[in-house]
Amino acid sequence: MATFGWPEFFFILRSAGWTLLLTALAFVIGGAFGAALAILRLSENRILRGFASGYILVIQSIPVLMVLFMSYYGLSLFGIELPAFFAASLSLSIYVSAYLAEIWRGSIESVPFQQWEASSSLALTRAQQYRYVILPQALRIALPPTVGFLVQLVKNTSIVSVVGFVELSRAGALVNQATFLPFQVFSVVALIYFLICFPLSRLSRHLEKVMHAGRRH
Amino acid sequence: MSRFKFEAVWAEFDTILAGVGLTIALSIGAIVLGSVLAVALVAVRTLLGRWAGHLVDAYVELMRNTPFLVQLFMIFFGLPLIGVKMTGEWAALLAMTLNLGAYASEIIRAGVDSIHKSQLEAGESLALTRWQVFRYVILKPAFARVWPALSSQFVLMMLASSICSFIAVRELSGVASIIEQNTFRSFEVYIVVTVLYLALALTLKASLLWLGGRLFPNTSGLARIEAKGSAV
Amino acid sequence: MPAVVIENVHKSYGPVEVLKGVSLAIETGQVFAIIGRSGSGKSTLLRCVNGLEVTQSGRIEVAGHAVTQEQKALRELRKDVGIVFQSYNLFPHLTVGENIKLAPRLAKGVSEAEADARARAVLAQVGLSEKFDAYPDNLSGGQQQRVAIARSLAMQPKVMLFDEVTSALDPELTGEVLTVMENLARGGMTMMLVTHEMAFARNVADVTVFMHQGKIWEQGPSKELFASPKTPELQAFLRSGVH
After folding, report:
1. CA B176 to CA C230: how far, in whole Å?
2. What does the pLDDT look like over A81-96, one tens digit per residue?
3. Is the pLDDT of residue C114 over 60?
4. Domain ranges of chain B
5. What is the nearest CA distance from A121 to chain B, expressed in angstroms?
6. What mean pLDDT, rounded, does chain B reach?
7. What's the gap in Å between the CA of A145 and the closest CA on chain B?
8. ipTM for the complex shown
9. pTM metric for this prediction
10. Residue B87, Cβ neighbours under 10 Å: how many?
């Protein structure tokens, strides 16, 4: 039975690094897909709209664990064998894309319809409306919930150990198995998560306040 | 399609059903107990002054900024060491309750805060105690107002029950894992289980919607009233 | 050739018909005021003229453009027809100057230098030169509305539409907006305005149109219409003072 010493602690800390990397990669890839999905969701084409809605509904109605399994085994069905890190990131991206698509679609729809009327009355094309009038405003609206979702993502990376990847939570479980000191080990793990997530949560709340202060009329 | 052999999965269907049953039991248990905990937390915050409020805030922030999995591990591996023996299922229920209680208390608190001050003043002017005002004038309208957000959180918790498979609890995901190990038919098992989760989520959502209609019959009127506007 | 031709226009929202065969012609340089109770269809009619509302039947032609729902044609139309809304609808993330420059640059391909000059000119015209770099949030309602008028003017429209532009303003702020509109009228702009400001309609508009239940009930030179209303509905409307 090992003691919970510095080697174990650094092992946990290194795994936290993997958690952050996973989060970043999943956020970027998932964000790109999510943006595309949001646009599809708002499309005038019923088929595209339906596909995007269906995809989002399904992903949001099943556990992240299942999203991970389905995409992991789905990948291997197509004969794609990825190293665990990339398999995990890709699987998480699918989960991220659905949630961000909803958040961002909601943000675009939150832009008052009068902004659409005013900009179309000034003879702007749809693309010009999106680029110069709607999206800049939607971005501001989207910032607080997007940062809030980032917190969820960090926490949900804890599940990727099912596809064989060792991140922060799994590292804690492994050290616990070796040391039988769950309170100490998981307190350290929890603390590290807290130090990552809490500032992000505060940032999200702060952005929310700032945004509401600016929306006077 | 011939590559997929669903027969192996159908053969284990009673096991799967047992898994569904445990998922439902854990979820309903956590929803009920978590709601009680949430109301208690909100009551403490509202009625017991600043320091109690800070304690509640600390608890809530802790639960919201750490993963459910870690909370589960802490309870499952840690409690036996201080003499509390519990099976995986009870640890799961406890973890889900504590987690949901924190999230739900935040949601309900927002609902309570949105009740216009004039309601409180009316209640107190009628010589009700603070607890009575809280219970009869504030709580039910607050619940009605946040029922959609609360329902979403309940469904999220039901989906999160899948994480309890990490401590070998035989809810739906745990069962899927076991069947997969026995039959090696990974894709088939997980597709079936995914569809079951989808059905569970949609059913739970619909049930909560119906329940909201029964519990809070005047909700549409409540929704029409501006939170910071008129006193009803 | 009239600047605005509205011929037998019908419009419904679902089963409810809000415009029941409206016909009207505005000559270049004329100012038409449209008055009536809420629900009489006046704002709807105005919004049909620049294509924001869709008609079921009838014909509308404005500044030489036929009003259709075809996007490219609508955009061409909107380069010549400006509209000012009741809730100003300025772009909150852009400064006043940027608000005004945006459409001339993007829709009319005007150069940055030219757009800048135009923006300063129209801003001076509405009396707000010093606010060029301010954000809409920092302006009063009256100032925002004047910026909205300037924004439309920067497109050098042939016809300007005004949809109850003073209704959302505090009473003491309506004057500054009405003054700008009066100056525009005296400068020869073709204007169609829906308004509750009866004094403005009587003194500044050449023709006043009274709408009632989706139809044009009475129409005529403003001073005459207000002095001797012919129909009982208009008489009741003017008497009621509820505008």
Report:
1. 83
2. 778 888 899 889 999 9
3. yes
4. 7-224
5. 32
6. 87
7. 15
8. 0.90
9. 0.83
10. 12
